[in-house]
Structure formats: C-alpha cells, structure tokens
C-alpha cells in the first residue's frame, strides 16, 4: 500500500512538470512561427525604404570625373522617386535575396532570443528580490519595479542583438553593398551616356555573387569585420526599442483595464490580446524614437562598411578626394564637423517605424493566431 501510494504521488507530482514542459515547447513553436511570418512580411513591405536610407547615409561620390561636386538626393522622397525613375523597382529591392534568406532566421533568433532573455532575467530578478516572491506566485509574470523593468528589457534587447548579429552582419554587409552599388553604377556615365573615367568600385550580379566576391577579396574577416560597428549601432537601438515598446504596452494595458500603475492585474492581459491600434501605436512610437536616437551610429556603421568594400574591390582607386575613416569614433567626429551627424535620420525613421510596426504587430498577432490554431 505504501509502495502504491508513493508511486501515485510521484506520478501526480510529475504531471505539472510535464504540462509545463509541453507548454514551453508550444510557446517556443508559436514564437518561431510568428517571428518568421512577421519577418517576411516586414521585409517585403519596407525594403525599398531601407534602400533609400542606405543611399542617403552612404558617403557622397563625385558626380563626374572632372568635377569636385557631389551628387546627392534632396531627401527621402526625392531618393525614392529618383531611384525608381532612373533604375527601376529592382534597384529598390537590391539585396532583398540576402535579407530573406539570412534575415528571416535572424528575425526568428532575434525575437525568440529576446523573449528568452526577458523571461529568464525577470525570473532571476524576482527570485533575487525577496519582496517580489509573494506577488510573483499569484501572477503569470514576475512583478518588477520600473528600474528593474528597464534593466531587464535593456539588457535583453542588447543580448538578443549580440547573438543575432552572427547572422545579421553578413546579411547587412551584402545588403548594403548591393543597395549602394546601384547608385555608384548610375554615376559612372555622364549626361551624354558616355562612360566617365572614374573607375567603378564594385559590381555584384546578385546577393550570392556579392557574398562570394566579398569572401574572395576580403576573406571571412570582410564578412564579420563590421560586427563591432553593427552591434554598436543596432545594440543600443534594440535595447532602447524594447524599453520603450514594453513600457508602452504596459501603459496600454493600464488604460484598457483602468488599473493603477501598481496593480499586478495589469499583466493578465496578454500582449496578443491588445487591440490592433494599440499595438501599432506602441511599436511605431518605440521604433521612431529609438531609430532617430541611434541614427548617427547607423550612419557611421554603413560608411565604414562601404569604405571597406571600396578599398577591397579596387585598391588603385584614388581616394584623395574621399574621406577615409580610421574607425567609428573618427567617422562620427567627421560627420559632426560637417553637420552630417543626423544625415539620413529621417529616412531611417521612415524605414524603422513602419518596419518595427509591421514586424512586432504581425509577430504578436501571428503568435496569438498560431497559439489558437495549434
């Protein structure tokens, strides 16, 4: 009888663990499917805006071999219209293949990684802070102070970006060189249609050809040499974005439920249950503010990547009239002296605000949809 009682007790105690494990596996599957779908939809919609941003931030090139003037766009709209009119829709989607092939797994790793770090750090902070243990047991999520929430979301966003950059950096290098090369190619002919004497810096037939050429001329270091600059650019963006985004969602829940800021019942409303216009407002606002604040870092990162490609592709190219940067700080300092520190910031906001809106809204809704369907 004792044996039977012990066995039944052991079996009963294992049931919650099995249910928790199954729930965790299902949640991970929903995160993966939701983030993959969201990544594809977002890239398809916003890639032309990303191309415009890259061309505005890239270092200016001489408009002709005999002239010291520089060809430039008057703004994001002018860049979008001019690129479409002169080079066609394919130019606006330069590097799109690399983004879909490499960017989709990157988006999955990014969003699931952030969710993992956020939940893990929240539990660790709650367990470490004994004052929150009682409130955490009665709520689906640990109750944290505003400072603890800021620390958890900021560090989770930074770590998620650090891991994802292993995939994102090669994709970003190929994508941006594909986007910028169209602009350089269009400047190799004068107004009469005759070729200029200015050498063409590099020309790729497609994303795969660009990857092969970069590896052949620069080695694997050429693919990952911009890891530090990319992390320095997108790390703060991701950290700030999730701080703003999570806070906006919490405020939205408080508005909908009419609860005070200290009421833990606010967390009972799931993210996917927020109305669409609330999710749009949260993601768009967070994306716009964080992308504008980190625009100088993104501009410096892009210019360093383009400069490495120019030097590697044509070592005989005369760079006497072109600014050469020794590093990210030097690039930022040079841009500050020229008044170009926030050059392309408007285009970056125009790209990231819709991109983060589409990505996060689709992610929250698709994850909720898969959770109900599966």
Main features:
single chain, 374 residues, mainly alpha, two-stranded antiparallel sheet, globular, disordered N terminus
Summarize the structure.
With 374 residues, the protein is mainly alpha-helical. It contains 13 helices and 2 strands, in the order H-E-E-H-H-H-H-H-H-H-H-H-H-H-H. Strands 1-2 form a two-stranded antiparallel sheet.
What would you say this structure looks like, in words?
This protein is mostly helical. The chain is 74% helix and 1% strand. It has 13 helices and 2 strands, in the order αββαααααααααααα. The protein has a two-stranded antiparallel sheet with strand order 1-2. Helix 1 (2-57) packs across helix 2 (76-87), helix 1 (2-57) crosses helix 6 (146-186) and helix 4 packs antiparallel against helix 6. The protein is globular, with a radius of gyration of 24 Å. Residues 1-13, 63-70, 131-139 and 195-200 have low confidence and may be disordered.
* Helix and strand element order: HEEHHHHHHHHHHHH
Give the percentage of residues in beta strands.
Answer: under 5%
**Globular, elongated, flat, extended or rod-shaped: what is the shape?**
globular
What is the strand tally?
2
Residues in helix, %:
over 70%
Strand arrangement within the widest β-sheet reads 1-2
Poorly predicted runs = 1-13, 63-70, 131-139, 195-200
Oligomer: single chain
Radius of gyration: 24 Å
Largest sheet: 2 strands, antiparallel
Can you count the helices? 13
Q: How far apart, in Å, are the first and last alpha carbons?
A: 41 Å
- Category by helix and strand content: mainly alpha
In round numbers, the mean pLDDT is 76
